[in-house]
Specification:
It is a single chain. This protein is an alpha+beta fold and 126 residues long. The chain has 1 helix and 8 strands. The protein has one helix at 3-21; strands at residues 29-32, 38-39, 42-43, 49-52, 56-60, 66-70, 82-86, 93-97. It starts with a helix and ends in a 29-residue tail after the last strand. The relative contact order is 0.13.
Length: 126
């Protein structure tokens, strides 16, 4: 690998590392040295980016390959009766009730009642 390609690859990994460390939850990144700078029939130049399915942003690092990272910050600390949902078109992350995903789950001191307990309205110790 020539020095310029090595420098570009190193810069990509450093950017991914900073992006991952500064986020609420670790995001996955990967690098493919064999990938072409092409998506949905469109060619991309060095430094250009595109969004792939699943809220993954890829960047052309020609001639050394393509680097891709998730763009969503997934919460990691929430009650067990909540779950994370990602809207695939907007990449919006929502925390919803597992028992009824149409309803938002808002964790906090005043919202620590497990909805599975129904009318008993039992507070969880924690």
């Amino acid at each position: 690998m020539d020095p310029m390609a090595r420098h570009i690859t190193l810069m990509f990994f450093m950017a991914c590392l900073v992006w991952t460390i500064c986020s609420a939850a670790p995001m996955q990144c990967h690098f493919n040295s064999q990938a072409l700078c092409e998506h949905d029939g469109k060619q991309y130049s060095m430094g250009e980016s595109w969004m792939e399915q699943g809220c993954v942003q890829c960047t052309c690092l020609h001639p050394v390959g393509v680097g891709c990272c998730e763009t969503v910050h997934r919460p990691v600390d929430f009650p067990p009766w909540c779950e994370v949902r990602v809207e695939s078109l907007t990449c919006q992350v929502m925390l919803v009730l597992t028992s009824d995903p149409r309803l938002p789950c808002i964790p906090g001191e005043d919202n620590n009642v497990d909805p599975r307990h129904g009318a008993l309205n039992m507070k969880l110790e924690g």
